[in-house]
Amino acid sequence: MILIKLGGSIITNKQKPLSPNLKAINNIASKLRKLNESIIVVHGGGSFGHYWSVKYNIHTKPAKYSKKGVSVVKNSMVELNKIILDSFLKNGLSPYCVPPTDFMYGHKVDSKKVKEISRIANSGFAPVSYGDVIWHGAGKFYILSGDRIMGILAKILKPRLAIFVLNVDGVYSSMKTKELLHEIKGKSAIISRVRADVTGGMHRKIVEASSISNTGIDVFLTNVNMPDRIVNAVRNGKFDGTVFRR
Ligand code: IP8
After folding, report:
1. CATH number of this structure's domain 2-245
2. What single string gives the DSSP state of each residue in the chain?
3. Which residue, judged by its Cα, is nearest atom 7 of ligand 1?
4. Which of 12 and 195 is assigned the larger pLDDT?
5. How confident is the model at residue 188 (pLDDT cuts 50, 70, 90)?
6. Which ligand 1 atom sits closest to the C-alpha of 145?
């Protein structure tokens, strides 16, 4: 089974609020259709959830946030999720929506529920989860990022490969030279050097990718603009991007 994260900045136009990047979504969906292997997909918030969580100052830390803000963030993620589900359906996949509230209880993970997700995937469906605003109890909510969901699912389900689809080729050793790091092993000093957004941006991805690889799973970061790279990695083990080796 393959675990795939679609970054918010590739499935939406991040500069323009509430605008999905339908071309990218359809393009990815048509490639995922070719994989011949069970997949579980997680997507981020981009110009939907991220946009509103910044506007209403809602963070990963549990707190009593603006009620309107929580509702608006949640609604926007449901809306974006529906767009992804519709595209998957149109492209011949059998998506099955799994909001993180299906397997999260506050910060606790219901591992039995998570294991059911892999059964759904093995029955020929493509479960689709997403970063979301989560009830924490006592009037508090928090943002659970799609990257964190990748870590949670990977730890329990042990996929053959975890893929983060980005709008860059992978991890660069420096932004100046744009020199791509093809392979990363163990914890890396680059973690502290990258800029963060509301739920951590590239920093969070690198932390999550390196922690997933430490549990014995290869993690591949690749560019959405070359979607065949996903197919090549899954089918032929040809990794055009950055691999965090298990
Ligand atoms: O884009 C965050 O998920 P991410 C989703 O994976 C929200 O960081 C609701 C901001």
Report:
1. 3.40.1160.10
2. -EEEEE-HHHHB-TTSTT-B-HHHHHHHHHHHTT--S-EEEEE--HHHHHHHHHHTT--SS-B---HHHHHHHHHHHHHHHHHHHHHHHHTT--EEE--GGGTEETTEE-HHHHHHHHHHHHTT-EEEEE-EEEEEETTEEEEE-HHHHHHHHHHHH--SEEEEEESSSS-BS-TTTT-B--EEESS-GGGGGS---TT-HHHHHHHHHHHHHTTT-EEEEEETTSTHHHHHHHHH----SEEEE-
3. 49
4. 12
5. low
6. 3
Structural tokens at position 39? 């997949």
Q: Which atom of ligand 1 is nearest to the CA of 200?
A: 8
Domain boundaries along the sequence of the chain: 2-245
Q: Which residues of 62-84 are buried (b: 16+ CB within 10 A; e: fewer)?
A: beebeeebbebbbebbeebbebb
pTM confidence score: 0.93
User: Mean pLDDT of all residues in the chain?
Assistant: 91
Q: How far is the CA of 178 from the centre of ligand 1 (A)?
A: 26
Could you read off the pLDDT of 49-78 as tens digits, one per residue? Answer: 999 999 999 999 999 999 999 999 999 999
pLDDT tens digits along 17-39: 999 999 999 999 999 999 989 99
Pocket of ligand 1 (CB under 6 A): 8, 44-45, 49-50, 53, 73, 77, 131-133, 143, 145-147, 198-199
